[in-house]
Amino acid sequence: LDGFKGVNDRLGHQAGDELLIQAARRLQESVRAGDTAARLGGDEFAALIAGDAGQDPAAREFQVHEIADRLRLTLSQPYRIDGADVRVAASIGVAFAEPGITAGDLLRNADLAMYRAKAGGKNRVELYAPQMQAEAVRRTALDTRLRTALHDGEFALLHQPVVDLATGRVAAVAAQARWRSAQGILFTPAEFLRVADDAGERTAELGRWMLEEAVAQAAERRRHGHRAPVSVRVPARRLLDRSFALGTVEALLGRHGLPAGSLVLELADSDPRLSFDELEQRLVALRRLGVRIALDGFGSGYAAINALRRLPVDILKLDRGLVEGVVESARLHKITSGLLRIAGDLGLHSVAEGVDVPEQVTALRAMGCTHAQGTAFSGPLDEHGLRRALARDAYPVPGAQPRPVLAGGSVPARVVPSGSLPSMRSHSETRVPPT
Length: 435
Hints:
By secondary structure, the protein is an alpha/beta fold. The protein has helices at residues 4-11, 13-30, 57-75, 103-119, 131-149, 189-198, 200-223, 236-239, 242-256, 276-289, 305-310, 320-324, 330-345, 358-367, 383-391; strands spanning 36-41, 44-48, 79-81, 84-86, 92-94, 125-127, 155-164, 170-180, 186-187, 230-235, 263-268, 292-298, 315-318, 349-352, 371-372.
């Protein structure tokens, strides 16, 4: 069950037990008379589907996939617990019994397929394939290394400039973690974040380290005259922790002397079952501190119109999947243009991620996108490279009008159209004259 741990954490173990009872009952009622349903442990269930040995393989696969999808939809319906609707979903892995396979092998294969379903976005059905075993071995080895990597100093924090498309100047910097193992192997965030996410405590530990490093480094840069805000990705489910929103963030800012307006938290999660009501409360508390909120991956998954309607945010980060095709695809061009128009109408900043070629810069700027990050300007930089980027006059942006740099690295305010903003700094740091 996807999201079961969140139910336990938010509503307590009694509510979690009731959810498991209801899920088990649904599973029993959904399988056929000759099939077997079981709870393997925790929130993990199995169904043994009896088949015809002489059945055509393609027909068998279609039939089982149909059954699994029906189970997924059944288990994903709201559960009534203590007078309230509770939502979870189901990731399902399917494996077929073949000649010579043991019961243990069958369960292991189904489990590997289930993991692939979770890794692929959850609430899906995935069929087992032999290469999944090799992936599982690699994942286990990666998880073992992750246990000690942070303590051994194998992680480093890099920053990618976020460029103001009206001026070409760096308006903010986006923090990104990089992991180089003691053996010299460089792991991409896509690899280690997925593994860390499966072990929740390692995700939390890595997140704490990233936030602490980002705040400390931003405070140090500020003491040297570089005031660009820093943005840090935070899983939405982490923000449901009241102590994080009202304790950890405020304590970090105070300890390092960084103004709250110099920190942007990027809301990063693809789980649609998170409680909007609780999340809204945490975001309101953070914004009262002066911290700004960005909705990451806008235009896909969780970061959709409903989230924008319900949650108080300041910045929309456009999903890189849209940006990649914004020049070649007329359809994506129209979708992106519409999303940017929404951002502009709401007076929000817009940041396009994964902007890698000048043609994308030109297209996005013409649509009204206010900021961009990507290799069209710069890749992720270490601290030395970042300070050089912050000190430069401006990155080349077609049609941009760089502002003159004044003493101390500050820039004069400029008149902007109604609904747009001059930089990603907080209102307390940048005052805009009336148009």
